[in-house]
Amino acid sequence: MTAPDFTTTIVVEQTPKEAFDAITNVRGWWSEEIEGNTSKLHDEFAYHYEDMHRCKMKLIEVIPDSKIVWLVMENYFDFTKDKSEWTGTTIRFEISKPDGKPDSNKTQIRFTHVGLVPEYECYDVCKEGWSNYINKSLRNLITKGKGQPNATGKPRTASEEKLKTDRK
Fold this sequence. Notes:
Layout: E1 6-12, H1 16-24, H2 26-29, E2 35-36, E3 44-49, E4 53-63, E5 67-77, E6 90-96, E7 107-114, H3 123-144, H4 158-167
Antiparallel strand pairs: 1-7, 2-3, 3-4, 4-5, 5-6, 6-7
């Protein structure tokens, strides 16, 4: 039996529109070095963290204030045997009212990396990374107006720091 895809959920007091706008501002919460467009259907963008991780994403579903889905078109990790882990997986952001309560003043964001499973060699590093970027950086961008994206050469998680140190 295959383990479930990596999922994490946050709840904020901002509107679904504010959450949607923050999610599509990928430079504001994931990496300042994102190249390309990140908000409309069929937009494509590239991410890289030094020479350790590169990927190319395409927005394949965009429902304003409700859902965003990225397709991982290309991916490379220098720290895994299978350099293409993630390729062909999808990353989903589902925006809703908690417990289906339409009158709630809160918004729930459910992040799922469909295909990121414990069998992947990168799973622990990726789980830590996504947890940091969603639960801290994206949450702060939504709630405080400022996230903590990667800046050039500055790791954001202990796993990224360890990988960087191990490479030296």
